[in-house]
């Protein structure tokens, strides 16, 4: 299961949930009895599978929502064990839970919004697209869910569905600094990585990341050697102010703007980095710049081991215009 651990708090939460599933006395104030894992199940994965499978078995869905704070706490306990369960077990458990709430639109909306706060928002202890997506999809499809909530969940579901690691990244058009348009990236099997750098020139963290990338000699070598490409995307209009500010960007980068980028891509961090394969498959997203630089460093070592030069290409000579030699 793809879990983005944002803070160490999730480790403590998982340990607390594991202890609680072994000790029924912990659940004295719970809105319903939590499952007691049989002692015959000894492995962490096995205990987690049993726990999440049977978590809601004794929950009376018509009554527990009278105290929503208690339900919120229970959902947190439920999610805390998810990273230890098998993917298919977690998915089936969530499907079963949402099925029980299909005819309770207000409660379904509450669970989806609580899941958003716990799994998707800036303040979430950890991010998990796999856990969030079914909640957003269920609330987004239920016509009896309040319209504002339903539309927001539809948007979240669409973004998560279209920006899954392993999938082809969305590739809308963007406006370039000369006024022309192009797709955000061009699939290129000769590239090892394409990096989408979503940033706002008025964002201090974005400018710091840009300067760190620009100052990194290895990054420049990988770009000039045709191994890596960096595409800077401003999630706004290509106005005169942005054109002036973009003059500070490296000339080896592709630079463009798309005002609808936040409706298309998963831009939960600022700045936001997507790491793609050369052909545009998403490897990871919402990455810090230091992680990008670490990957470039490993790439340099890999290319060296493969005896592939990361030195910039030389211009073609007049005697052999069909071949580029490398330094």
List keywords for this structure.
327 residues; 9 strands; 12 helices
List the helices and strands and how they pair.
Elements: E1 4-5, H1 9-22, H2 44-54, H3 68-81, H4 87-100, H5 105-119, E2 126-127, H6 129-141, H7 147-162, E3 173-176, E4 181-183, E5 193-198, H8 204-215, H9 217-224, E6 228-234, H10 240-246, E7 254-257, H11 261-264, E8 272-277, E9 282-285, H12 289-305
Parallel strand pairs: 5-6, 6-7
Antiparallel strand pairs: 1-2, 3-4, 3-7, 5-8, 8-9
Helix pairs in contact: 1-3, 2-4, 3-5, 4-6, 5-6, 6-7
Task: Walk me through the structure.
- This protein has helices spanning 9-22, 44-54, 68-81, 87-100, 105-119, 129-141, 147-162, 204-215, 217-224, 240-246, 261-264, 289-305; strands at 4-5, 126-127, 173-176, 181-183, 193-198, 228-234, 254-257, 272-277, 282-285.
- By secondary structure, the chain is α+β, with helices and mostly antiparallel strands.
- Strands 4-3-7-6-5-8-9 form a seven-stranded mixed β-sheet, covered by helices on one side. A two-stranded antiparallel ribbon has the order 1-2.
- A hairpin with a 4-residue loop joins strand 3 (173-176) and strand 4.
- 32% of the residues are buried.
Quick description:
This protein has 327 residues and is an alpha+beta fold. The chain contains 12 helices and 9 strands.
- Poorly predicted runs are 5-15, 21-28, 312-327
Distance between the termini: 43 Å
| Number of E strands | 9
Estimated helix fraction: 40-55%
Overall outline? elongated
- The radius of gyration over CA amounts to 24 Å
Count of helix runs: 12
């Amino acid at each position: 299961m793809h879990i983005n651990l944002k803070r160490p708090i999730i480790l403590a939460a998982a340990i607390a949930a594991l202890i609680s599933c072994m000790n029924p006395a912990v659940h004295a104030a719970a809105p319903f009895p939590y499952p007691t894992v049989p002692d015959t199940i000894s492995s962490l994965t096995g205990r987690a599978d049993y726990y999440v499978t049977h978590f809601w078995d004794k929950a009376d869905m018509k009554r527990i929502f009278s105290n929503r704070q208690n339900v919120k706490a229970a959902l947190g306990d439920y999610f805390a064990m998810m990273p230890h369960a098998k993917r298919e077990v977690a998915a089936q458990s969530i499907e079963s839970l949402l099925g029980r709430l299909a005819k309770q639109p207000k409660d379904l909306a509450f669970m989806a919004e609580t899941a958003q706060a716990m799994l998707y928002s800036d303040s979430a202890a950890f991010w998990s697209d796999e856990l969030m997506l079914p909640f957003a999809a269920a609330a987004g499809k239920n016509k009896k869910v309040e319209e504002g909530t339903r539309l927001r969940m539809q948007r979240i579901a669409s973004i998560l569905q279209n920006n899954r690691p392993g999938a082809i990244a969305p590739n809308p058009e963007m406006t370039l600094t000369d006024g022309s348009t192009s797709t955000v990236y061009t699939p290129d099997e000769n590239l090892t990585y394409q990096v989408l750098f979503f940033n706002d020139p008025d964002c201090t963290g974005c400018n710091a990341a840009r300067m760190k990338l620009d100052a990194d000699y290895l990054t420049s070598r990988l770009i000039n050697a045709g191994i890596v490409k960096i595409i800077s995307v401003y999630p706004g209009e290509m106005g005169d102010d942005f054109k002036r500010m973009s003059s500070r960007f490296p000339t080896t980068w592709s630079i463009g703007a798309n005002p609808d980028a936040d409706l298309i891509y998963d831009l939960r961090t600022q700045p936001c980095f997507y790491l793609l394969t050369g052909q545009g498959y998403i490897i990871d997203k919402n990455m810090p710049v230091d992680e990008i630089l670490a990957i470039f460093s490993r790439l340099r070592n890999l290319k060296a081991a493969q005896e592939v030069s990361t030195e910039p290409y030389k211009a073609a000579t007049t005697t052999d215009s069909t071949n580029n030699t490398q330094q």
